[in-house]
Fold this protein.
Amino acid sequence: MSDMGSRNLRRRPDKAALGIAAVLAAVAIVIAWSTSLSSAVAGYSPVGPKTFPYIIAGGLFILSVFTAIEAMRGHFPQREPQNFPPMLWVLGGLVAQMLTMKTIGFSIATGFLFAATARAFGKGQMWITFPVGVVFALLVWLMFAKGLQLTLPAGPLERLF
C-alpha cells in the first residue's frame, strides 16, 4: 500500500513545469506571429530572413510540448525550496541599475548591481564590493566607449575620461 501511495505522489502534474511549458509555448507563438507580420524581401532562395525565426519558434513549441508531457507524468526531480532574499537582492540591484544609469552613469549604477549581487551570494561587504564593481564597470565602459566607439550612458565618473 505504501508503494502505491508514493507512486501516486510522484505522478502528480508538476505545476511549475506546466507553467514553464505554457511560457515556452507563448514565446513560440509570439515569435511566429511577429515573424509572419514582418515584411521580408522575396528572393530566389527558399531560405530567407523569416526562416530562422520560424525554426526557433518551432523548436520552442516542441520543447513546450515535451515539457508539458513530462510535467503531466511527474518526471521532474524534486526541487529545493526557494530562498527569496538573495533573489530580491539581485532583482533590487538590477532595478537600481536601470533606474539610475542615465543619471549617475554606467559605472556607478553597475557598481550597485555588482554589490547587490555579491551580497546575494554572501560574498564580501557592500563597502568593499561596491567600489570593486565600479572599477570593473568603468573598465567595461572604457572598452566599449573608447575602444569600440559604442555609446553607454556616461555619468560624472565617465566624463573624467
In short: Confidence is low (pLDDT under 50) at residues 1-8.
